[in-house]
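Now for one record.
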Amino acid sequence: MIQRINGTTFKQMIDYGVRNLNKYCQTVNKLNVFPVPDGDTGTNMVITIAKGLQSVKDSEDLSVTAKSLAESIIYGARGNSGVIVSQYLKGISEAFIGLSQADPADLVDALGRGVKYAYEAVAEPVEGTMLTVVKDAYNSIDAARDGFSCIDEVFIKYIKIAHVSLENTPELLPTLKEAGVVDSGGAGILYFLEGIMMYLNGETPEEMVNKEQTEESVDYSVFNKESTFPYGYCTELLIQLLSCGEPFELSLFRQTLQQMGESVVVTLDGDKVRIHVHTHYPEQIFAYCHRFGEFLSLKIENMTVQHTETVKAIMCSEQKSNGRFSVVAVASSPEIQELFVQMGADVAIYCPESASTKDYIDAFEAVSTDEIVVFPNSSDSILTALQASKVYDKARISVINSKSIAQCYSALPIIDFTKKTDEVVRDINATFENMFVVSVIQRSENEHGKYLSHAGKTIIAVSDRLEDTVVKTAQKVQDMRSCDIMTVFCPAELEQTVEEITSSLSQRGILLEVFTVSCHTSGVMLLCFE
C-alpha cells in the first residue's frame, strides 16, 4: 500500500493509466455515439495524455512533476474528450503544486479540483458523460475523506463508484440508451483509472505504441459529387492572445462560439486559449478567433469521414464468419450502411447510385466464407451483381432479387446463419412475398400532380403535396392489404414532413416506423407487411 504520492509516483500513475487506456482504445472508440458517432474518443484521450506525459519532468518532488504536467497537458489536447480529460488532469496537477508529497486527503482534494476544471471547460455540460462519472466518484470519496489510511483505499472507492456511475449513463443520456451503450468518455476515464490501480497493485500494463504512427489512412473513394456531409467538422485551435488583438473576455467568447457551433469547449491558460467546437462552417470560427490573436496550432477533421471510417472498421473487424455464408448488402447512404451492418450484414457497400462490379468483388474479397448472399437493393444493380458473381470464382454467390433498401431491411432480421444458403434464399423470397413496397417520387413540373406513389408499375396516389400523397398512399395500402404497421425511409430534410404525416396516420390507427437518411433523392419509400 502507498501512503503518499511523490513526483515519481505521480508520473508512474499517469503512465500506467494511459497504457491501460491504450489497451482498450478501440473498445472505447466503438462506444462513441455522443455527441457525434465519429469513433475517436479513445484515440483522442490516449494521444492527449501521452503527449502531455512526454514533457513531464522526472523529479521526486511532487510539485515539480505536477507543475510540468499542468503546463503541458492542455497543449496536446485532441478532440472533445481529449480537451475534457486534459482539464481534469490539469486540475488534479495544480492541486499538487506546492506539495512535495500528497497524502490521501490531498488526493481527494486534487480529484475534486479535477472535476471542477472538467466541468468549467464545457460550455454546456451534459450529464451522462465522463463529467458525471468523475463527479459521482469524487462525491463518494469526499463524503468518506476522513476514513482513508492510504492512497490505495481512495482509488478503490473512487473506481468502484465510477463503475456504478458509468453503468447509469444510459439512464441520463437518451442517445446512449437508444444505442445500447455506456458513455465512451466515461469508459475511457475508467480504463485510465484502472491502469492507475494496476500500478498501486504492482501489476504491469502493456507497452504503448505511437498512436499517430499506427492510425490507418482514410479511403476517400467512398465519397463522390452526390455525397452529403451531415456531421460537420471537428475544429480545434490553440490561440496566442496578443496585446494588439481585440480585448478578450472568456464568457463572451464562449457564448459567441456557442452560437456558431456545438460541443463547445474553451479553456484559458494564462494568455493562451484552447478551443474545441463542432461546426459546419469552420471558416467562421477561424475569422472570429483571429481577431484576438494568432493560431499556434489548428486542426479540422471532417466528422462524416470519421464516421464512415468507423463503419468501415466495424465491417472489417467484426466479420462474423458465420460458417456457411456471409452477407453483402448495398446501401444508399452512410446511415443505411451502418444500419445494415448492425442488422447482420458482414459488409455493406456504400453507393449513392448503383454498385459497380469492382465494388462487389472488393466486398467478396473482404469476407472469409465459401458462400456469399448478396442484396443489390436496386434494379440497376442486380445485373451488375450477377456479373460480379460470374467473374468471382473464390466463393459461391447467391444474388437476391432485392430492388430496394426496404426489401433488404425486411430480410436481414430473418436470416438464420445456421441454415444452408439455399434455405435462407427461400426464406428471404417468402418474406418478399408478404411485403409491399411503395415509392413516392416527385414528378416533372409539366405533369399533373407534383407527387406520385407507385408499387412497381401500379400507381397508388397522385397529389400536389408530398404530405397528402404519402397519407393517401398509406390509407390505400391499408385498405388493400390490411397493413397497420409501416416503415418509412425518407431523406433527412423531410423529417419534419414525415412527423406531420405520422400524426395524420396515427389517427387512422396506422403506426409508422421512420428512418431518416442523408441521400441525393427527395423521394419517400414505404414498406408494409401483411
